Amino acid sequence: MGWFSRKDWNVLAVIFERSDLYTVAGQRAKGGDADKARDGAKLHKRAVFWAVFDQKRSFVEGGPGQGAINVPPEVVKKLERELPMNRTVQDVLKALEAGTENKCAKSLQWMGYPKKAVQKDEEDFS
User: Fold this and answer.
1) Residue 110 has pLDDT above 90, yes or no
2) Is the pLDDT of residue 17 over 70?
3) How many angstroms separate the CA atoms of 110 and 102, rounded?
4) Distance from C-alpha of 67 to C-alpha of 57, rounded to nearest angstrom
5) Do the domain assignments include residue 62?
6) Dist. CA 84–CA 69, nearest whole Å
7) Which residues does 105 contact at the CB level (< 8 Å), separation at least 6?
8) Would you say residue 82 lies in a domain?
9) CA-based radius of gyration for the chain
């Protein structure tokens, strides 16, 4: 980084609430606070995935969080692939970029939630 470059990041964490509901929590942070916000998202116990975006909505970095153990690995991969284009994520980023709020959270609207297991009726009808 040059002398005048300064971090101005939007840090997001996709938080596990239950198997069919995650929350996208975002925070806008600058300078050293940006690193602290990123580290907080990385270390959050229920963060399925964390991501850092700049103010032009470019993905800077991200990865599975500690809460990824709560969901199947294929869900984490799909979330990683689709996160930057997700409508809820875009709405949170837009709110943070506007500068009216430093923090924002919304329920994740997403078609990639794990399917509920179908239980077979093992009752004998004979």
Assistant:
1) yes
2) yes
3) 24
4) 24
5) yes
6) 21
7) 23, 24, 25, 26, 92
8) yes
9) 17
Query: Would you say the C-alpha torsion 89, 91, 95, 98 has a positive or negative sign?
Result: positive
And the tokens for 53?
């975006």
Task: Look at residue 101 in the predicted model and tell me its pLDDT.
Answer: 86
| Residue 115 domain flag | no
Phi-psi domain of 66 (left: phi exceeds 0; alpha: psi -120 through 50; beta: other)? alpha
Among 4-18, 64-78, 94-108, 110-124, the range scoring the smallest mean pLDDT is 110-124
Q: What's the pTM?
A: 0.86
The answer to the question of residue 112 being in a domain is no
How many domains does the structure of the chain reveal?
1
Task: Report the chain's mean pLDDT, rounded to a whole number.
Answer: 90
In which domain, by residue range, is 58 found?
8-107
